[in-house]
Amino acid sequence: MKALIQAAHKAYECAYVPYSQFPVGAAILLEDGSILTGANVENASYGLSMCAERNCLFHAVSAGVEKPSIKAMAIATPQSHRVSPCGACRQVMRELMPLDTPIYLSSKESTETITNDALLPLGFDKDDL
Ligand code: THU
């Protein structure tokens, strides 16, 4: 998990955050040991900005990654306090990763662990349609 968390910290170096100055990196570990990453990318039309977690997962789906092969996700910020994924990201994480996926929330100083399911209790999914 150390390599995954390090990858998330490296990923925020590529964040494009001229408006918030709040870089976030995300990384997922796949069953073959490979790691895919994403960073937040903002826009002058603020609502078009995209979080690191969704960029990471959309990158993975676009590259042909299948849900069961995702084994863990790390989300990192250089701040002293760990970041907590926004509601939109939680919904996308619920759809695209197994519910028991461990999520590592990592700051400059510490790392907390939670499961994907615990991030969005009673989440909406395709069985509700
Ligand atoms: N952001 C993320 O990328 N992930 C999170 O978990 C929280 C927020 C981004 C969105 C925006 O670019 C900046 O952080 C400030 O909200």
Topology (elements, then pairings):
Layout (H helix, E strand, L loop, with lengths): L1 H10 L13 E6 L4 E5 L12 H11 L7 E7 L10 H10 L5 E5 L4 E5 H4 L10
Parallel strand pairs: 3-4
Antiparallel strand pairs: 1-2, 1-3, 4-5
Helix pairs in contact: 2-3
The site of tetrahydrodeoxyuridine has 15 residues, from helix 2.
CATH top level label: Alpha Beta
Query: What's the total count of β strands?
Result: 5
Main sheet properties: 5 strands, mixed
- Report the bound ligands by name, code or SMILES: tetrahydrodeoxyuridine
What is the string of SSEs from the N terminus onward?
HEEHEHEEH
The pLDDT mean sits at: 97
The amount of helix comes to 25-40%
Structural class: alpha+beta
Q: What count of domains describes the coordinates?
A: 1
Radius of gyration: 14 Å
**CATH H-level homologous superfamily name:** Cytidine Deaminase, domain 2
Question: What form results from the Cα inertia axes?
Answer: globular
Named CATH architecture: 3-Layer(aba) Sandwich
